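User: My instructor asked us to take a sequence, write out its structure as tokens, and then describe one feature of it. I'm not sure where to start. Here is the sequence I was given:
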Amino acid sequence: MCNYMVTYFVRFMEVRRDVFQAIADPTRRAIIQLLAQKPLNLNAVAGQFDISRPAVSKHMRILTECGLVVVVKKGREHYCNANLQSLQEVQAWVAQYSEFWNRRLDVLEDLLKQDKDNANV
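Assistant: Let's start with the prediction itself. The structure tokens for your sequence are:
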């Protein structure tokens, strides 16, 4: 029973990929950066890394599952293209914290100015 639950959880996590999981890995971030410059076939992508071809394929599968990479077939080749529009979810998430900290720093700045004005009186 316990092995069944572990297997179910692992399969659930594999199916439920999102852009945050994809960018959490430095190799996948490097692949995205590489493909943002120009489309490449899988062999060309694999040639840029000191990891096995199956490992690169696994990273590519994760990137395609969350929509950061789109694979297009041209003749016998499969070309990988970065889909940076998928990063908008990350940008929106970061923006909310950026706005939060900007407000907090504005409050701190006002308090420091107030403190300085009170010291000069």
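For the description part of your assignment, you could build on this observation: Residues 14 and 62 are 8 Å apart (CA to CA). Try explaining in your own words what that tells you about the chain.
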